[in-house]
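TODO from last week: model Deoxyguanosinetriphosphate triphosphohydrolase-like protein.
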Amino acid sequence: MTQNDSKKLYASYPESSRGRLLKEPESKTRTCFQRDRDRIIHSVAFRRLQYKTQVFVYHEGDHFRTRLTHSLEVAQIARSLSRTLGINEDLAEGVALAHDLGHTPFGHAGEDAMHDVMEPFGGFDHNEQTFRIVTQLERRYADFNGLNLTWETLEGLAKHNGPVEGPNSREEYVPESMTKYCKNARDLELTSFASLEAQVAAIADDIAYNNHDIDDGIRAGLFTVDDLLPIPVVGDIFREVLKKYPNLETESLVHEAVRRLVDYMISDVLHETRTRLETANPKTVFDIRCQNRAMVAFSDQFRVAEKQLRAFLFERMYRHEKVKEMRKRVKQVVRNLFSHYSEHPEELPDYWRLEAGTKLTKRSARLIADYIAGMTDRYAFEQHRQIFNLDFEIK
């Protein structure tokens, strides 16, 4: 697992996996966690992430992050953390690569619009949608629907933000698809924390989006380097780079500072995680799951700085007039598509049309949401143009 640490008894080992829902012959060349990762990479949902956006819609520039590039960055950070901690890199990478499969087109704006139209039918959440994709919606294998992933990978995706139920849960509601799966198929133990590998994937997500939002926000002209200087840690690192390289052009300056900030966050996580592990002294993976807090975390000191950074980005990036106007437009695209297919289910593609039936029910609404959520930005725009016979103006 690592060249730096001895074998960790609390790590996840493929030979101890709880296996797959549908039993399959083991691979002669790959562990079960490596096969999970490979199935995720080869899925249709993963390929679509190339044309699904984070904050900026695909047409706004080739250099902004997409869901695909974000997922690759998260996977790289997760592997680095796992290697240093001496835990399973393949499991952490698989969870990292799959964590955003359930996102709609147009980033969080698309998800907000989807949740609004689906509220009468149980709402919409991208984490739950990811779970639906890997357990139901991918339809490429002869023997099963979904990807038939191992228990450990599914657990990591279900508990991406921590326990889903119980006193340690931060979720507003328990996703219906997960509770049904736990009742009818396999118990994912939703009241406990996930493995260290899944926790690493979750915090790698935080590290990646904190830093690429800085990079993308400056690139888009939504704020400047000077605007970041008052923020603790972030401002300190930018000042260090400015002092050492006073004549560096902005693009290289930002890259150098973000590179150092990523390293700072990783080091902070490693120090805090090791401290928590030393205090808890877990002997098994079961011990990790039974803790009353996550073992992988930022320090309290950095959490203060991160909170200020997120508040800054929320105000200067997500609430920027340019972004707000685009959010308004793309949310209308999602609402229009859902309304149209609800009224005209006969216009859905063959599989979706047959499954949805002719009347709008909770089940048919969910199927329509599945179809729209699977669209890329450009496909959603194209469908909207064809259906409503107009070019939706996107500036």
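Done. Residues 323-388 form one domain.
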